[in-house]
């Protein structure tokens, strides 16, 4: 597989959207491989923008299969913040708002966006915790009600008991 991988790396060495990387999990890359959950070799992982965990690639290991996967899945145009080339409409609108700002103003904007992102992450974590707690309570209540319903059904279907004297 190595020749196909190296050829693929050569094909994309100047790419803005694709990076082909080797990590030796038996040497200096052990920590990285452990962090990424690599257990067997060779393992191919791919990462989409913003994805820190990556996904396992399970396609063919020959050059044509690798090249086809990269072309279809990963080789997407990247927004150029300076020229606005390949940018989506909302990205162009945002970049246009940033036009004319100094580097210091842009750094302040970045700091604010990072803080806002951290706030959202914190709020999501709290909301998820609350949701999980409520879900657990609902499931317990649901189990109690299901058991009560089963017992009531049995009582309803049971033959009438004769009164003892």
From TrEMBL:
One of its GO terms (molecular function) is protein disulfide isomerase activity. GO terms for biological process: protein folding. It comes from the Eukaryota. Residues 103-137 form a coiled coil. Keywords: Coiled coil, Signal. GO terms for cellular component: endoplasmic reticulum. Residues 1-71 form the Thioredoxin domain. It holds the Pfam family Thioredoxin. Gene3D superfamilies: Glutaredoxin. InterPro entries: PDI, Thioredoxin-like_sf, Thioredoxin_domain. Belongs to the protein disulfide isomerase family. This is Thioredoxin domain-containing protein.
């Amino acid at each position: 597989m190595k020749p196909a991988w190296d050829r693929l790396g050569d094909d994309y060495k100047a790419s803005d959207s694709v990076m082909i990387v080797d990590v030796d999990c038996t040497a200096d890359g052990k920590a990285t491989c452990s962090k990424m959950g690599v257990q067997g070799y060779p393992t191919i992982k791919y990462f989409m923008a913003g994805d820190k965990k990556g996904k396992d690639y399970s396609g063919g290991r020959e050059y044509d299969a690798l090249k086809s996967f990269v072309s279809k899945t990963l080789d997407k145009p990247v927004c150029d913040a300076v020229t606005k080339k390949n940018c989506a409409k909302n990205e162009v609108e945002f970049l246009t708002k940033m036009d004319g700002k100094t580097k210091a103003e842009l750094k302040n904007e970045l700091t604010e966006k990072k803080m806002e992102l951290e706030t959202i992450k914190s709020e999501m974590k709290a909301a998820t915790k609350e949701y999980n707690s409520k879900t657990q309570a609902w499931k317990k209540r649901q189990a109690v009600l299901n058991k009560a319903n089963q017992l009531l059904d049995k009582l309803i279907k049971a033959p009438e008991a004769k009164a003892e004297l």
